[in-house]
Design brief:
By secondary structure, the protein is an alpha/beta fold. The protein has a six-stranded mixed β-sheet with strand order 2-1-3-6-12-13, sandwiched between helices. A four-stranded antiparallel β-sheet has the order 8-9-7-10. It has a three-stranded antiparallel β-sheet with strand order 4-5-11, covered by helices on one side. Helix 1 crosses helix 2. The longest helix has 16 residues. The chain is globular, with a radius of gyration of 17 Å. The chain binds ribulose-5-phosphate.
Length: about 240
């Protein structure tokens, strides 16, 4: 019997073991699974004297890079990445993702889009046939604060479902992202053509980014309940 943390650890470590090479610029995602990936990365850098540079996708990622003694950089000096590794809240059969439970999806998407390869590390609970099968907290959407009410109205009118402003824990008021914006969580009521939905949402004035990552991930390292790690590649079209 493996704890969920042990399973996340196995997935994070396996991905870094297999995917990271010397002389790479790496995108470092956010969440709890990525913590284990960074620990493994720090071990490999020390043991193998790897020459790598790390680009964070959040305040958390930046702290993890620094605390693990890894070289920190940014897109200003390293706009082209070899590989980005990140977690996900849900992965569908085509490797489309919902991300943003931690509110970091905007920087995560920017970093992933500028990487030659985008790899996900996740525990088995994230593995779904369709988005929404297991993830019930909705699709996170980062919005400019003054626009959150009109964006919420537009989303409801266009697609139905329930749209909630994400509220902070141990602070009165809304969650404020690393970019100074708010997060709406859209609890959708049906499976859709997510590529088109994503484009439509991005056209609403005030929307900064969505947590829909469509056709981006190349492969996912899933930690399984029995302690094994399986790798799923995106089906070729
Ligand atoms: C943060 C994210 C995370 O990558 C996602 O929530 C997965 O986190 P965890 O590894 O803790 O399950 O998208 O915005």
């Amino acid at each position: 019997m493996h704890s969920i943390d042990e399973i996340k650890r196995l997935a994070g470590r396996a991905a870094v073991e297999k995917e990271v090479k010397n002389n790479q610029v790496l995108g470092i995602g956010s969440g709890s699974t990525i913590v284990y990936a960074i620990q493994k990365l720090a071990e490999r850098v020390k043991e193998e004297k790897l020459n790598i540079v790390c680009i964070p996708t959040s305040f958390q990622g930046r702290q993890l890079i620094l605390h693990n003694g890894l070289p920190l950089s940014g897109l200003g000096t390293h706009p082209e990445l070899d590989l980005a590794i990140d977690g996900a809240d849900e992965v569908d059969a085509n490797l489309n993702l919902i991300k943003g439970s931690g509110g970091c999806m905007t920087q995560e998407k920017i970093v992933a889009c500028n990487a030659k390869r985008f790899i996900i590390v996740a525990d088995y609970s994230k593995d779904s046939k369709n988005l929404g099968d297991s993830w019930q907290k909705g699709i996170p959407i980062e919005v400019i604060p003054m626009a959150y009410v009109p964006v919420r109205r537009s989303l409801s009118q266009m697609f139905g479902g329930v749209v909630e402003l994400r509220m902070a824990y141990r602070k009165t008021g809304p969650v404020v992202t690393d970019n100074g914006n708010y997060v709406l969580d859209w609890k959708f009521d049906q499976v859709r053509e997510w590529k088109e939905v994503n484009t439509a949402i991005k056209m609403i004035p005030g929307v900064v980014e969505t947590g829909l990552f469509i056709n981006m991930a190349e492969r996912v390292y899933f930690g399984r309940e029995d302690g094994s790690v399986t790798v799923r590649k995106r089906p070729s079209k």
